[in-house]
Structures are given as C-alpha cells and as structure tokens.
Design a protein that fits this description.
By secondary structure, the chain is of the alpha/beta class. The chain has eight helices and eleven strands. Helices cover 43% and strands 20% of the residues. The strands form three sheets. The chain has a five-stranded parallel sheet with strand order 2-1-3-4-5, with helices on both faces. A four-stranded antiparallel sheet has the order 6-7-8-9, covered by helices on one side. A two-stranded antiparallel sheet has the order 10-11.
Amino acid sequence: MSRRILVIEDNRDIAHLVRLHLRDASYRVDAVEDGSEGLARARSGHYDLIILDLMLPQLDGLELCRRLRAEENHTPILMLTAKTAEVDRVLGLEVGADDYLTKPFSIHELVARVNALFRRIDTLAQRSEAATPEPIHAGGVAIDPTTRSVSIDGRAVSLTAREFDLLLYLVRHAGRVYSRTQLLDKVWGYGHEGYEHTVNSHINRLRAKIERSPADPKYVLTVWGVGYKFTDKYVDD
C-alpha cells in the first residue's frame, strides 16, 4: 500500500508541483492551503508524513506542529521554511519537526528527503520486529528503544523523533567520532552537502535537553575539526 502524504502549503504553484512529483514517486498526496484545515486533516491519523509550510493563513506552521506534538501525534513532519528564517528553523525543530527544507528548494531534493524519511522509518520498524532491544544505560542516561523514551537521572526527557534517533545512534557507538556528513547519512538517511548545519541544530537542542550544562557537556562531546561523539566514559554501565 502506498504511503499517504499531507501537504499543507498556501502557495498553489508550489503545492501543485510537490503533489505532482510525489504522485509520480507513487505516493498518495492530499494538499490543503490553510493551517486550520491542515490541522484537522493531520488529526485524522490517515497520513504517514506531513509536509508543512511555516507561513500559513489562519494557523501558522509552528503552532500547528506544536499542537500535534502536544496531542502525542508523532506523524513525521518535513517543514518548509524561508531561506533567511534561521530562527524559524530552530523553533520548528524545537516544537517537533523531524526535518526541514529551505525555500527555494529543488523538487528532486524534496522527493529524496521524503524517500529518506520513509527508509529510516522502515529500518526502525524492521529492527523492532527482528528483536526487542534492551534498554541502554550510560551514566545518568537511560534509553528504551522499544518505547522510544529517555530519562536523565530518573527524569523523563521529551525528545523529537530525530533527536531520539541521533542520541540512540551516538550512544550505541559511544566513543566513536562522527562527522556531520556521516551523521546526516546514518541518522537522516541522506548526505547532501550544505545541510551539515542541520546536525549542529539537533546537537544543540539535544544538549539543551540532556546536559546539566549544555555549554560544558559531559555526554555529547565535540571533537574539534572532526565532529561529535557520545562519551565512552560510561560504556560499561
């Protein structure tokens, strides 16, 4: 059965182009032009992915995303943002978007991003079916891959889907250093040059949630000139 995608975009030309190419890629696509209708459609639970523009009439994309996540709706969200609106991209990630693409964008890259998101979802599902992974403990960090839950020193921490995937990957390979490009490939499922800042944003958000002092982290460490790693200090915990 083909995946269903909801496109929430008020620019009719962009929405038509996105819908056309996604349908050519064998996806079933619905498109709406305002945030209120988009929220109602998203709440239906009939979609496997939401492509969400930030600037929408009636209800903007950030608030729409925030409401869905507050309702425990974890449908993956690919957010479309203006190229100069860095603060919006950061806020989008913070409220629960799984990925973002800046306008103007290549329609072929958008389709590639969608494909990568679904590959990631399928891989996680296959791993879950193959075996029930054991909870992981590393210092004060406790991760349950089955329930996709995280706690720090017994305190539950709410992570976005992508933040969770990033943390889990780093912890499972504690001590190994990964470049931003490698993390894009391993966690996001693509390695497009020029999007390494996506990794930086997620690392910063992750540290803000799990580190006692994000400016002086003890878990997710920077290896200057190379990339990031999860400390191997707790590898035997």
